Amino acid sequence: MSVRLMVVDDHRLLAEALASALKLRGHRVLAATAPTSGAADLVIARAPEVCLFGTAAPAAPGAFDPIARIGRERPQVAVVVLGPVPSPRGIAAAFAAGAAGYVRHDERIEGVERAMMKARAGEASVAPALLRGAFTELLHPVEKPDDEGQRLLRLLTPREAEVLVRVAEGEGTRLIAAGMRIAPSTARTHVQRVLMKLGVGSRLEAAALAARTGLLDRAAVHTAMGAAREPGYDMPQGPDAP
User: Fold this and answer.
1) DSSP reduced 3-state for 126
2) Rounded CA gap, 64 and 58, in Å?
3) 166 and 190 Cβ atoms separated by less than 8 Å
4) Pairing of strands 50-54, 78-83
5) In whole angstroms, what is the distance from residue 89 CA to residue 138 CA?
6) Whole-model pTM?
7) Alpha carbon of 86 to those of 31, 125, 142, 144: distances in Å?
8) pLDDT tens per residue, the chain (242 residues)?
9) How far apart are CA 92 and CA 90, in angstroms?
């Protein structure tokens, strides 16, 4: 059964990719937009049945303020959060703000559809495994939780981090090469190395992983800091310099 929905995410590429996949499965997508901070106005204006709300930081202060506003002004809109494996605080914050469901970002499209259907029917949707994990962490907190984004960032060179940021922004090989002043063949090699190091098979998967783990934001900051420290970074000596 078709659902009238909107997809919002802090990263437009991810929102558009998910929207395209759902359109192919017969759903009516009213809009795919970014960032989530400005989503409330559009959702309130378009009034979809379901809003898929992607976030990379469910425990961040104010992350779910747009959901709370949607609940006040369009209570008939069911919001399903798409995010990383959250802390108990993240799950609690989502439902306290009025979310009807919480689905892991790496869930199969069929799982996303089930969550949409349940949310539209007024049922809460959260995977039992997700709840078990959250409650386990609540009962046995880790003093120093692993920062997956930081771990992944350490796998990349500064140049690869910049390539990842450009990939997530939807740039193709030639645009990456032009922006970084390198040859297309070198840009292609950097992209392949990024995919290999992250253990993914496509640029879209790399962008999704980077966004959901916080790697993308860290990579952007890392790239900016590197450029500030090294004024010659964008000026390789040869056309094919790494």
Assistant:
1) strand
2) 8
3) no
4) parallel
5) 9
6) 0.59
7) 26, 15, 13, 15
8) 799 999 998 888 888 999 999 999 999 999 998 878 888 999 999 999 999 999 877 777 788 999 999 999 999 999 999 887 666 677 878 888 999 999 888 788 999 999 999 999 999 888 777 777 666 766 666 554 457 888 889 999 999 999 999 998 889 999 999 999 999 999 999 999 999 999 888 998 888 888 888 888 888 877 766 554 444 444 343 444 44
9) 5
Q: Amino acid identity, residue 69?
A: R
Write down the residue that tokens 């999704």 correspond to. Answer: 208
Q: Are 183 and 236 in contact (CB under 8 A)?
A: no
How many residues belong to the chain?
Answer: 242
Token output for 163: 């390539």
> DSSP per residue over 92-106, as a string?
HHHHHTT-SEEEETT
